[in-house]
Amino acid sequence: MLSDAPAGTPLKIGSHTFSSRLIVGTGKYSSYQQMREALEVSGTECITVAVRRERLVDAEGKNLLDYVDTDRYTILPNTAGCFSADDAVRVARLGREILSQMENPGADWVKLEVLGDAKTLLPDPIGTLEATRKLIADGFQVLVYTTDDAVVAKRLKEAGATSVMPAGSPIGSGQGVLNPNAIRICLEYLKDGDPD
Fold it and tell me: Cβ distance 87 to 116 under 8 Å?
């Protein structure tokens, strides 16, 4: 996330405020113990969990939530792996239900991903906008992963997204920002409403 805020300024996303600007995922660790240790040393206060793809209980019968201090971390559920607006909305609601039962403050928000392509994991902008509108109407604060198309970013902001996160390159590609001009234009739309 790009920010003009001075170092040490709290990160505010919707109704959530954190002193750490780092949000850490719970996937790809070799064990839940390794995940717990990584979370502790990271200094994060917010972790994201893929509701659709994350197994709460592994092959050994261990529960992911037994390794996450839900009093210490705000959980940001995400819809990774969803390929339709309806699927993403269903998964977001499932995440909210789980976190509501745990009384975790993350129950009111979601990191939205509606993917359009299994090979590149690029977002489906039409499905993303549709899911964003439905989730906002359902009371969610939506942090939305989208393409680097400035018009799509503008539409998502107009729909009420709490945060719009345009992709700089395909997920996991390690390529960095491929089109800096597109990201610059997105930021102008998102900050001011229209580029000059």
Answer: no
SS3 content of the chain, % helix, strand, coil (to 5): 35, 20, 45
Give the residue, 84 or 55, on which the prediction is more confident. Answer: 84
Residue 184, classified by CB atoms within 10 Å of its CB into exposed (0-12), middle (13-18) or buried (19+), is: middle
Q: How many domains does one find in the chain?
A: 1
Which one of 12, 28, 62, 111 is the catalytic residue? 111
Instruction: Output DSSP code: residue 6.
Output: P
Beta strands in 80-140 (DSSP E): 109-112
Question: Which residues are paired to 141 by β-bridges?
Answer: 109
157 is catalytic: no
Summarised one tens digit per residue, pLDDT across range 132-153 is 999 999 999 999 999 999 999 9
Tell me whether residue 34 is in a domain: yes
Domain that holds residue 180: 11-192
Which of 172, 171, 195 is CA-nearest to residue 182?
Answer: 195
- Pair 88, 131: CB distance under 8 Å: yes
pTM of structure:
0.88
Least confident of 55-59, 66-70, 103-107: 55-59
10 Å CB burial of residue 172 (0-12, 13-18, 19+) is exposed
